[in-house]
Structures are given as structure tokens and as C-alpha cells.
Amino acid sequence: MGPAAMASRRHRICMIPGDGIGPEVVAQGVRTLEKACAAHAVALDIEEYEWGAKYYDRYGQMMPADALSVVESFDAIYFGAVGSLEVADHVAVWGLLMPIRKHLDLFVNVRPIRCFAGVKTMRTASPQDVDMVIIRENTEGEYANVGGRMYQGENEIAVQTSVFTRRGTARIIDYAFRHAAPERGVQSITKSNALAFSMTMWDEVTRDVSARYPDIPCERLHVDAAAYRMVIAPHTFHTMVASNLFGDILSDLGAGLLGSLGLAASANLNPDQSRGLFEPVHGSAPDIVGRGTANPVGAILSGAMMLEFLGEDEIANDLRGAVGQVLGRGLGTPDIGGACSTSELADEIIQALR
Ligand code: ATP
Question: pTM here?
Fold first, then answer.
């Protein structure tokens, strides 16, 4: 009997490698996750779906008509990246990732930013003091996709409307308070001095939710000031809660603090319905596709977040420990100054697993 047959627990995973470096990093992610799971007699039943730009090229759409009912039948979704030079960015993103996020109502996007010993960053201070998580609203706000374009040429008008609901705002801010460490509190990211409708409501909701968590300090910070302070004093952040656009931008800044976009992981969650999609923060990286140099760590750590979501905390910790150990030895792909290929770095991480 093989290890999969002897498994005491099994999880059904929908794998969507997607475009660009997505398949390269997800392949190494799966190898690493399977190895880590095997040591705990846990099996992953993975089904792969080749949706994305190539699918679009053949069928004129990024995924089939029944895709949303397919994805919802799994325990979790493991996703690579979306986007290619052949398909317009907005067509690709709105044809694949956004419909899944919206259909499954994955309203929480969790993006941890924890620096690794051994990886050079721009900062001179000890990187270990950078330990924050960005909680980004994931289904509405600036990415509600409401608007239109009219007229052409010099008279053209484009309208892009943000949609903030009180319910949507409250549930993401509440999630941040529920997951914040009391000693370090929540930073609510706003811009109510300029956005006098959406962000004033965001501030009011922050105040109302905060009142229900009297032990958790809450700071309100304009997004521009937050961006500055993340660079100057990143150790002062712990749980940041932000709208869709602000959270998107600040989490790339956070990835910059880590030393590479290739190291950053994320989870898209609906905690009420136990739904989750897990993907590295980076995109399809067309500039390095096919070279075998993409950093697989963001994908591997997104897999660790997926295992935690599935209740496999010990395996998730094993994976994080192995990644930390390997990066701590100064190993890495070229984006972090190393000489490993994507698969060599994954090999090292697999070797380092307990
Ligand atoms: P997309 O439009 O799909 O988001 P993009 O090129 O605009 O793609 P990213 O894919 O996020 O944005 O890439 C931004 C930069 O970070 C690129 O220079 C890319 O090579 C680099 N990068 C992204 N992911 C990785 C990775 N896993 N390993 C190494 N470098 C990466």
C-alpha cells in the first residue's frame, strides 16, 4: 500500500495553476505540500484545471461555463497566477480570479508580511521585527467593477465607481479585530480626508466595531501615511485592515519589505462558509516565465496557509519551519540574490522538512 492509500485524513484540492510562472511555482508547491503531508499520513486529492490564457486562446473565455460550480465542490482551491501578454489584464483577471472570489464570497484576503532571517532587505535594522498581516477587503470597494466608458477621443469619459456596503465594511473590520493580538492592536487604513463618502463610512464602521473590542487598541491611519510608515517603521504595524485597492497596494509594499514579491503568500477566505482560495501574492511575472528562476516560496507558504485552513496546523508549521531554515542558510532564487532554480529551492525545502 502506498502512503496515499494509508492516509488517515484526505483533503480534496482544486488546483488552478493559471498563467505565466503560476504553473512553475504551483508545481513545486504541490511537491512540497505532498511531501509534508505524507509525513503526517495526510493525503491531498488534487484535481488540476488548466484554465487561464491558453484556455482563452482556444475557447474565447478564461474558464468554462460550469467552472464556478466545479470550484465550490472542493475543500480548498490552490491557485497560481493569472495574466499573460496575449490577453488584456482586465479580461484575464475578470474572467478567472475575480468571479471565483465573488462567487464564493471570499471577502477576506489575508496577506502576512513576516521577514526571513537570511534574506537581504532594504532595511538596516533587524528584519525579524517586521511581523504584520494585511487584512484586505476582497469583494467590493474600489474593485466592485461598476462604471462605464462613453464617447471617444478627446471627449471620452470613464467612470469607475467604488461600492462600499456597511455590511461588507463591517464584516472585514470585524474579522481584523477577531484576529488581532491585543497587545499590538489594529490599524485601520482610511483616506477620509479626500474620500468623504466611502471612507467616512469606513471610519464610522471602524469606530463601531472597535467599541465591541475594548481591549484591542485601534489606530486610524491615512493610506499615504501608512505607506510611508511601513517603509520607515514597519515594526509598528501588526494587523492592518484596508479596502480592496488600499490593501492590494500596501501588500505589494509589504512584499517589498520582505525582499521579494516571490516570498509573499495569501489566503482568500470566507470564514463563515469555510471556503478558501490560496495563492502567492505575485502575478504571472511574464518577464521571467520559462526560465526556471521563479521563487516558489510564496506558493509554498500559500499552501501552508491552505493546510492551516484545512485544520492541519502541524503540517503548516513544518512547512514554515523548513522554508525559514532554508532561507536562513542563505539559499534562494535570483530575486533574493541566490543561485537556486525554482525546483532546486523546493528540493532544499523538502530536504529540510522534519
Ligand atoms: P501580473 O500582471 O500578472 O500581475 P506583473 O508582471 O505585472 O504580472 P508580477 O507578476 O507580480 O506583476 O511581477 C512583478 C515583478 O516581480 C516582476 O519583475 C517579476 O519578475 C517579479 N516577481 C514576481 N513574482 C516572482 C517570483 N515568484 N519570483 C521571482 N520574481 C518574481
Answer: 0.94
The CATH number for 289's domain is 3.40.718.10
Quick one: DSSP state of residue 87?
B
Closest-CA residue to 258 (of 80, 123, 79): 123
Atom of ligand 1 nearest to the CA of 297: 27
Determine if ligand 1 sits within 6 Å of the CB of residue 294: yes
Whether the CB of 86 sits within 6 Å of ligand 1: no
For residue 288, the ligand 1 atom closest to its alpha carbon is 20
Distance in Å, CA 282 to ligand 1 centroid:
5
Mean pLDDT score, 309-334? 97
Determine, yes or no, domain membership for 143.
no
Is residue 352 in a domain? Answer: yes
Task: Residue 58: give the domain boundaries.
Answer: 1-107+263-354
> Does residue 219 contact residue 188 with C-beta atoms inside 8 Å?
yes
Amino acid residing at 261: L
> Which tens digits make up the pLDDT trace of 74-127?
999 999 999 998 899 999 999 999 999 999 999 999 999 999 988 988 765 566
Q: How many domains does one find in the chain?
A: 1
- Rounded Cα distance, 120 and 331, in Å: 11
